[in-house]
Amino acid sequence: MIHYQNILTGRYDFDLNETINESDWENITQDEPIDLVNIDDRDLPNYGSPSASDSDDFPNAEESGDNVSFEASSSDDDFLMPNRSPRPMSMSPFHNHEILIWIISKIVQISLAIHMMNIHHNLQRAVKLLHLKIAREYIVIKSTKKSWRLVCRRVEQGCRFRLTSFNDKHTNMWKVGRYIKEHICDMGMCRDGHFNLDVEIIANVLRVDIEKTPRRKAYLGRKRAFEKVYGTWEGSFAELPSFMEALKHFNPETIVEWKIERRVDVIEDVFNYVFWTFKPCIDGFVFCHPIITIDGTHVYGKYDIKLLIAIVTYSNRSILPLAFAIVVNESMKTWSLFLDHLHLHVVKGRRGVALISDRHHGILSFVYNSSNWQVPFGFHRFCLRHLKANFPKIFKNVTLNNLLWAAANHC
């Protein structure tokens, strides 16, 4: 910790851009506070020493009218100017020493705050690794700057596992309070993987091997591993018809609608659109509120395709999915196909159905030109969440944005 000792003892030959190693923190603890005021004289910077001709009693400069002569030290070579006498010992390169001390104290405070964050992160990582090792899962029920609480994910089975940690205000250290470490729950089958296994843990495991491998080989190796586990993107599209046939086989009366494109320059059919809805969803719509919400989202991967979905709610405010579609893009053509199939196979001529959506131009263009979604057969309204998200783009006022949401909730 030589660098910080130089700062705190008054030596000014430091570099604020220097990075701090984790090992440096081992020399700074809360049990040994650093006094910024009580500084030993031998640690003060050397700006010159008295010449041999001067006695111990220095003359008063104001009385004699002459400057006291000093021999410049080697550290002052860069500061000497031609035809100028060396500066007196009372001169300091900083005009205000108190400002410098304040800056140094702020640097130490920020550094200690970062250190506390690292300690909290290490605690979270240790708990996560422990639960991966013992094949148990937990959920965080409280996470603030002052406390961190978690319980077993299967607490409904009577598992009493608890862990509470807090930031001690006296020592400014994270401490473990209540801790019941025994899990009595049954993990069962983890089909979706461990709940607490995140990307950061996986990255740390793979990092050691990746660092030893050339970058291109590591990238191609990762790609090949994904293809062996999940298949290729082209293979997934090729298997899509078989997948839909399996849905229809194991879910009788499931409806599937295709839209493909035939090109002269391509041997295979080009995929554009597939729509499907399950028979239980069609039958359940009769008992739900006549309010359908539609939206689209990205399907991230090699191809920028979209997933369209229609949902409805019923009396206990739960969600029932009605229909799905995978399309090449969101446009008037794809939204027209989706809404036509939705009305044909799910709505089936039911009157008074309200359609809620965002202001996508494809949806607006079709709805305004389709009698199926106009009065008296249907109604079209806008999604309030999308309106609230886009409201600040024109009206940059937080109060108005909150009033918009409050007004809509009271309608």
Any overview of this molecule?
- The chain has eleven helices and 13 strands.
- The chain has 411 residues and is α+β, with helices and mostly antiparallel strands.
- The chain has three domains: 2-110, no CATH class; 115-187 and 195-209, no CATH class; 233-409, Nucleotidyltransferase, domain 5.
- The strands form three sheets. The chain has a seven-stranded mixed sheet with strand order 7-8-11-10-9-12-13, sandwiched between helices. It has a four-stranded antiparallel sheet with strand order 3-4-5-6, with helices on one face. Strands 1-2 form a two-stranded antiparallel sheet.
- The radius of gyration is 36 Å and the shape is extended.
- It starts with a helix and ends with a helix.
Features:
3 domains; disordered N terminus; 11 helices; 411 residues; four-stranded antiparallel β-sheet; Nucleotidyltransferase, domain 5; alpha+beta; seven-stranded mixed β-sheet
